[in-house]
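re: ur question from earlier - yeah i can do the single chain one, its not a big deal. heres the input i used so u can compare w yours
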Amino acid sequence: MKKVKIKRVLLKLTGELFGEEGGKGINFTSYENIASQLIKILRRTKIELAIVVGGGNIFRGRERASKVDEVSADYMGMLATVINGMALQEAFERLGAPTRMMTAFEIKSVAEPYIRRRAIRHIEKGRIVIFTAGTGSPFFTTDSGAALRAIETDCNVILKATGVDGVYSEDPAKNPKAKLYKSLSYQEALEKGLKIMDATAFALCQKHKMPIIVFNIKDLSKLDKIIRGQKIGTLVS
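and the output i got, formated as tokens:
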């Protein structure tokens, strides 16, 4: 990371991480396991943490049936992230970690609406802030939400947890000989056509020079090593 001191982290968690076997449905043990691991890492590293959660274990807007309007499907997907956010918040607080959940559109009875200055203040006070409902607008993924919130709240890096060890030249499930990249520039990633994030999210990160580290969700327990600069996964900068 070129000696950049990492103080504030945006962690992007895919919804499948909260599902049963196969990544679908809701597994409450998963929320507790993730919360427990992250609390231990926070105690070791003293970093400030914000989280963006996906909702793919419940519903993906892009997997809509043909009879469902695309805008409605996207809002359904956003609501799925709120469900995950509520369950993760409850797990954190049951383990004693101060947490705030914020939504991109108002659902006042369950969470605070996203206000940038308020979010930064929560983070500065040592609270884990969970951002849900993506950007609050259809046609954008939670990757876009993660990029936007990371930039808005002055995070030093986006850590994107995925199902593979980093960014590959091809899908490693289809080609076992696919090359794993340890580091890439934004331009190299674009030229190679590597799908690290959706185009909007990637453009935001490139414009604002926001580093992205893509790593395997199975390495979540190694998050403190990643933060300290150990080469795990792929760094895009």
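The chain has seven helices and eleven strands. not sure if urs matches, ping me
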